[in-house]
Specification:
Radius of gyration: 26 Å
Distance between the termini: 66 Å
Order of helices and strands: EEEEEHEEHEHHHHHEEEEE
CATH superfamily of the largest domain: K homology (KH) domain
Largest sheet: 5 strands, antiparallel
Strand order of the largest sheet: 2-1-4-3-5
Number of helices: 7
Helix content: 25-40%
Number of domains: 4
Length: 266
């Protein structure tokens, strides 16, 4: 039985399974694979495993060859074509006064098609734009409207934490993020402080949500009565990171108490 290898086409993009065929592959190798759009240039992102270990039973396309010097040269030419197409498309968008934000262009490896990624508030009539692009490049043209999160993922950037934004660095698929996650973590609900570059709630809230919900089970609830050395009071704040709570007594004193020293008021 053959082996299956995971291949990624974009940084932080989804990993797709391919049949290794007779090739001996390892992490980080560049390969040319068969895709629905002819051939594609990708990077081996997961170690080859036996097909019997694969959960899905869908038929696999094959690794066509290990990337050669000519393939790398072709990839560089594609990058130059993408840059030129991006600049030309921007000029066309301005001429046609289209209310759209073009942010990326991708060429298929065989240069048969150019894909233009953009965001817009509504539907855009880009038929005239496509005609101008076809006339210029003599290729198949695809205009792909995506959401603001995908915009951030493709363009990348630095988050408020000082690191590369998660969606661009490693997130393969977006998960739902809710304001409740921010509340559970005791964060300020100021939109500017809990939103990412895309303007939506930060994806990292989902990573920490399970840990915060687990920790909160050990804590007294907000408003619960507890005993302190200064008298009975009520919990007004939880500090999950420091494993402590802030208690306000009847005398309006605010006392910080570690949770392992809490004496509950029965």
């Amino acid at each position: 039985m053959g082996k299956v290898v995971g291949v990624r086409f974009k940084k932080a993009g989804k990993i797709y399974d391919f049949d290794c065929g007779a090739f001996v592959l390892s992490l980080g190798m560049s390969v040319i694979v068969e895709t629905e759009q002819h051939l594609g240039f990708g990077i081996v992102a997961s170690e080859p495993v036996m097909q019997s270990e694969r959960k899905s039973k869908r038929p696999l396309k094959k690794v066509f060859r290990v990337a050669s010097k000519e393939d790398f040269d072709q990839r560089e030419k594609n990058i130059e074509t993408e840059k030129d197409a991006y600049a030309f498309c921007l000029e066309c968008v301005k001429k046609l006064n289209l209310k759209m934000s073009l942010f990326s262009v991708e060429s298929t490896f065989d240069t048969a098609k150019l894909i233009f990624f953009f965001t817009a508030d509504g539907r855009i009539d880009f038929r005239q734009l496509v005609k101008m692009l076809v006339k210029k490049y003599k290729k198949r043209i695809e205009m792909r409207q995506v959401g603001i999160r995908n915009h951030a993922k493709i363009c990348g950037g630095i988050g408020r934490c000082g690191r590369v934004i998660c969606c661009s660095a490693f997130i393969e698929t977006f998960q739902p993020v809710s304001i409740k996650m921010a509340k559970d973590q005791g964060l300020s609900l100021n939109p500017t402080k809990i939103s990412g570059q895309c303007g939506r709630l930060m994806c990292c809230l989902t990573f920490e949500d399970d840990a915060y919900r687990y920790l909160k089970k050990k804590f007294p609830k907000i408003g619960q009565k507890v005993k302190t050395d200064a008298g009975t009071g009520r919990v007004i704040r939880q500090n999950l990171i420091n494993s402590s709570v802030l208690v306000k007594t009847k005398d309006n004193l605010e006392i910080k108490i570690p949770i392992d020293e809490i004496d509950y008021d029965d």
